[in-house]
Design goal:
Blueprint (H helix, E strand, L loop, with lengths): L5 H11 L2 H13 L1 H4 L3 H10 L5 E2 L7 E3 L4 E3 L1 H5 L2 H4 L1
Parallel strand pairs: 1-3
Antiparallel strand pairs: 2-3
Helix pairs in contact: 1-4, 2-4
């Protein structure tokens, strides 16, 4: 994909009113900030929507706690790019 309208992505997450989704999208965008040209304003907007307590990216899996997003992420997604997992 060549281009993401990140303002529209943030707006969609806001409309969904789902804190776990905000954390997941924020974590993904933060990990891919350079190639997707993610600006701090997008990450800041998503951080405001993140859960106050830790949520799991995948419930049945443990993982590493990512404090910035209050998200528990499977270990393999913290050590390699998501594209390698697909």
């Amino acid at each position: 994909m060549e281009y993401f309208d990140l303002d529209q992505v943030v707006e969609y997450v806001e409309l969904m009113n789902n804190k776990t989704l905000a954390a997941k999208v924020g974590y993904y965008l933060e990990r891919h900030a350079e190639p997707l040209m993610v600006e701090n304003k997008h990450l800041d907007a998503l951080r405001k929507l993140r859960p106050k307590q830790p949520h799991y990216l995948q419930r049945e899996k443990g993982g590493r706690f990512i404090k910035t997003w209050n998200l528990v992420v499977p270990e393999q997604l913290t050590t390699q790019d998501w594209e390698e997992r697909i």
